[in-house]
């Protein structure tokens, strides 16, 4: 039984997390993997378990486009084929899995599934390429919770009014109520108001026109646009575009990749550094502990098995979970 959505691009890392000559190990969809760049600059991602005794290839020697097992010396190329066996023939059965890689939008994506990789399935994230480095913050955070719980957190932004009451909460997300638009490959959920109190972190005069819009793509990639301007003063507005992308590590742990971009103070590196600390703090102190506690309280990754009582704010979460379940069923 497939435990995760197949035939999708999963974000493995931000490209700058993998230094030239270094390896990066990460478990994705329960599979321990190793990534490295060849001398020619090509990114490779392999199963990090040698087929002989499952030693971590990541601890072996890298040479050109090969990596040698540190235990008994089998050598593998970027396609996962064994190209040298000091103990006999380098047969095709000695291969390790190699994952198709796409480097796009400053990230490394791997294709997981039996079908041919389809670049069209990667959503357009060109806002990441367009934003200057001084107006963007890319983060990777390990969270001990199921990826769908983390998607729920973005798909129900009313939580900002309670969990982030002093920074992102103004009551707007609770009062605005969400509207949903369904599309074949994604859905959009939005909270909009022509006049409400701006969240403190927006630093805007109230009342303000406000918008929060999330585009969700399977299995848990979300682009969030949030901004506003004082009523009648669009020239004093702010707008932000943010990636929130959850790559399952296991069913109860997640690689949370985020990228925040903004349209104000875009050349201000000092402001960027301050914002970075604020964002890390808000997530580490508020979202992450709460979601990890929820996961521990649940004791299972399967929300439905616990019979949760649903609220109108769960519209997005229900839609996402339904689509994910359908895709997993389709792969079985
Ligand atoms: S464990 Fe890799 S060659 Fe033996
Ligand atoms: Fe939050």
Automatic annotation (TrEMBL):
One of its GO terms (molecular function) is vanillate monooxygenase activity. This is Vanillate O-demethylase monooxygenase subunit. Residues 9-110 form the Rieske domain. Pfam families: Rieske, VanA_C. CDD domains: RHO_alpha_C_DMO-like (cd08878). It comes from the Bacteria. Its EC number is 1.14.13.82. Keywords: 2Fe-2S, Iron, Iron-sulfur, Metal-binding, Monooxygenase, Oxidoreductase.
């Amino acid at each position: 039984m497939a435990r995760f959505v197949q035939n999708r691009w999963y974000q493995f890392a931000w490209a700058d997390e993998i230094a030239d000559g270094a390896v990066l190990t990460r478990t994705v969809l329960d599979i321990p993997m190793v990534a490295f760049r060849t001398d020619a600059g090509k990114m490779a991602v392999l199963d990090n378990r040698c087929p002989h005794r499952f030693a971590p290839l990541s601890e072996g020697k890298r040479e050109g486009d090969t990596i040698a097992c540190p235990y008994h010396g089998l050598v593998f190329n970027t396609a996962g084929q064994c190209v040298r066996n000091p103990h006999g023939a380098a047969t095709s059965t000695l291969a390790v899995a190699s994952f198709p890689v796409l480097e796009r939008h400053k990230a490394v994506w791997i294709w997981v599934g039996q079908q041919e990789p389809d670049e069209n399935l990667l959503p357009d994230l060109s806002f990441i390429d367009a934003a200057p480095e001084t107006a963007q913050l890319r983060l990777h955070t390990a969270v001990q919770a199921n990826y769908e719980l983390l998607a729920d957190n973005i798909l129900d932004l009313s939580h900002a009014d309670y969990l982030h009451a002093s920074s992102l909460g103004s009551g707007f997300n609770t009062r605005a109520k969400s509207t949903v638009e369904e599309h074949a490959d994604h859905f959009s959920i939005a909270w909009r108001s022509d006049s409400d109190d701006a969240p403190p972190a927006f630093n805007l005069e109230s009342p303000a026109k406000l918008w929060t819009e999330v585009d969700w793509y399977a299995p848990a990639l979300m682009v969030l646009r949030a901004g506003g301007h004082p009523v009648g003063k669009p020239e004093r507005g702010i707008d932000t575009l943010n990636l929130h992308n959850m790559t399952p590590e296991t069913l109860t742990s997640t690689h949370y990749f985020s990228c925040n971009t903004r349209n104000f103070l875009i050349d201000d590196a000092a402001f960027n550094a301050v914002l970075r600390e604020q964002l890390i703090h808000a997530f580490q102190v508020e979202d992450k502990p709460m979601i990890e506690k929820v996961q521990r309280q649940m004791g299972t990754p399967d929300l439905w098995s616990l019979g949760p009582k649903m609220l109108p704010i769960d519209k997005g979460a229900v839609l996402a979970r339904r689509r994910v379940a359908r895709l997993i069923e389709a792969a079985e």
